[in-house]
Amino acid sequence: MTSRAAAMEVTRERVLEAAADSFTAQWYDDVTMRAIADAAGVALQTVVNHFGTKEALFAEALGRWGDRIEATRFGVVPGDLDAAITTLVDDYERTGDAALRMLAIEERVPPVREPIARGREGHERWCERTFPGALRGLRGAARRRRLAQLVVATDVYTWKLLRRDRGFDRSQTITAVRELVRALHDLPEEAGR
After folding, report:
1. HEC sequence for 27-45
2. Which of 67, 85, 66 is nearest to 150 (CA)?
3. Which residue from 20, 51, 128, 173 could staple onto 61, CB 3.0 to 4.6 Å apart?
4. pLDDT (tens digit per residue) in 68-99
5. Torsion angles phi and psi, residue 33, rounded to 5
6. CB neighbours (10 Å) of residue 162?
7. Domains: count for the chain
8. Residue 122 lies in a domain
9. What is the pLDDT of residues 54-75, one digit of tens each?
10. CB 84 within 8 A of CB 76
11. Structural domain boundaries, residue 168
C-alpha cells in the first residue's frame, strides 16, 4: 500500500508541474486537461481522478507557483534594497509575463481571481516587510500612501513598462526600480504627513 501511495504522489506531482508550466506559459483558455495529461505522461482520466476539474487543477498549481514566488521574495533580508530589487526583477523575468496574462483575464475568468488577490496581498506584505526604512515614523494615511507607492514602484506593471514597453534590459530595469524605491526610502518623515 505504501508504494502505491508513493507512486500516486509522484504522479500527482508530475501533473501539478505540467499544469503549472502550462498555465504560466499560455493563456488560461488555451490550456486543456488533455494537454496537461499528455505533458505529464498520464491519461486524461488520471488527471480527472486527482483534481476533478480544470479550475481545481489551476488553483492547486497556481497556489504552488505563488508559494515559490513568496519563498524567493521573502528570502531577502529586510532593508537590503539592492538584494530586494534584484530578487524582484529576477522573479519578474521568470514570472512577469505569466502574471500579466492572468491580470488581463482576471475579470473574465473567475478561477484566476483568487490567485491574483493572493499575489496582491503577498506583494504588499513583502513591500511592508522589505522596505521598513521607507515606512519608518509614518502612521495612518501617510503610511498607507507610502506603502501604496512602494507597491506601485515594485509592481509587475512597472516591470512591464520598463522591460517590455521601454525596452530596458535587466540591469537598467533593476537600476530604475531601485531609484524609485530609494527615492521613497529617502523621503523625510515630514513628506509623509
Report:
1. CHHHCCHHHHHHHHCCCHH
2. 85
3. 20
4. 888 999 999 999 999 999 999 999 999 999 99
5. -65, -35
6. 22
7. 2
8. yes
9. 999 998 898 888 888 889 999 9
10. yes
11. 74-193
Q: Does 14 share its domain with 109?
A: no
Sign of CA dihedral 130, 192, 153, 173: negative
C-alpha cell at 163: 522591460
Residue 151 lies in a domain: yes
- pTM to 2 decimal places: 0.85
Domain assignment present for 66: no
Cell of 25: 506559459
Q: How far is CA 184 from CA 6, 70, 148, 177, in A?
A: 50, 23, 11, 11
- Look at residue 68 and tell me if it is in a domain: no
| CATH number of the domain within which 56 lies | 1.10.10.60
- DSSP assignment of 101-156 equals HHHHHTTT-HHHHHHHHHHHHHHHHHHHHH-HHHHTT--HHHHHHHHHHHHHHTSH
Quick check: helix, strand or coil at residue 27? coil
82 plus 145 within the same structural domain? yes
